[in-house]
Amino acid sequence: MGQSLQQYISYSDYKILMLGLDGVGKTQLLYRLKTKKQIAPNPTTGFNVEILQLKHKRPITIWDIGGQEQRRELWVHYLQNTQLVMYVIDSTDRDPDRIQQSKNELEKLLNYEQLANIPFVILFNKTDLPQAMNNKEIQDIFKISIDLKQIITSHKTLATKTTATSNKSVKQILKLLERVIIGNK
């Protein structure tokens, strides 16, 4: 891990930011994408960076940025040269305050000028757990205003349910990323 950050910047010309509140499973998803193995959950205090080689042979760099409240203020510093944002939401978290925080953070990201016309992939994670919201609950809870709907449309936003504990689900995410990346050259 003691390698220079410059290696990550120059090696890959496709940068993906993985963002979301703390505890939603971003790091678990990142390392499942990279290694196909489950890791022990640990809060991200800064960031994790991994390079993935997709089938289309173009290396991508995924930046998993910590989602604790004090870290979210730093997200803006990672936006430069981002070509895709993966926004992760915990589908088991029914706390109204956390849901509102997640919606607010997503809306903030969608409004950043640096991310204009950048595709977003919204991942509703932890859908394998019994307390996960179903499709209707997700739609009802994450109702969006007409203004936000127009912003989302301009970003080519895709949303899907997933779980970091399943290789099948991770393969679907990789296929989705390939489709978005290839369609966005």
From TrEMBL:
UniProt main location, coarse: Golgi
Residues bound to GTP: G20, L21, D22, G23, V24, G25, K26, T27, G67, N125, K126, T127, D128
Native organism: Hexamita inflata
Q: Among the entry's GO cellular component annotations, what is one? A: Golgi apparatus
Q: A Pfam family this protein belongs to? A: Arf
Question: What molecular function terms (GO) are annotated for this protein?
Answer: GTP binding; GTPase activity; metal ion binding
- Entry's localization field: Golgi apparatus
SMART domains, alphabetically? ARF (SM00177), RAB (SM00175), SAR (SM00178)
The answer on whether this UniProt entry bears the keyword Protein transport reads yes
Q: Which NCBIfam families match?
A: small_GTP (TIGR00231)
Q: Which GO terms describe its biological process?
A: protein transport; vesicle-mediated transport
InterPro entries, A to Z:
P-loop_NTPase, Small_GTP-bd, Small_GTPase_ARF, Small_GTPase_ARF/SAR
User: Keywords assigned by UniProt?
Assistant: ER-Golgi transport, Golgi apparatus, GTP-binding, Lipoprotein, Magnesium, Metal-binding, Myristate, Nucleotide-binding, Protein transport, Transport
The keyword Protein biosynthesis is annotated on this UniProt entry = no
CDD domains hit by this protein: Arf_Arl
Please identify the protein, giving its name as recorded. ADP-ribosylation factor
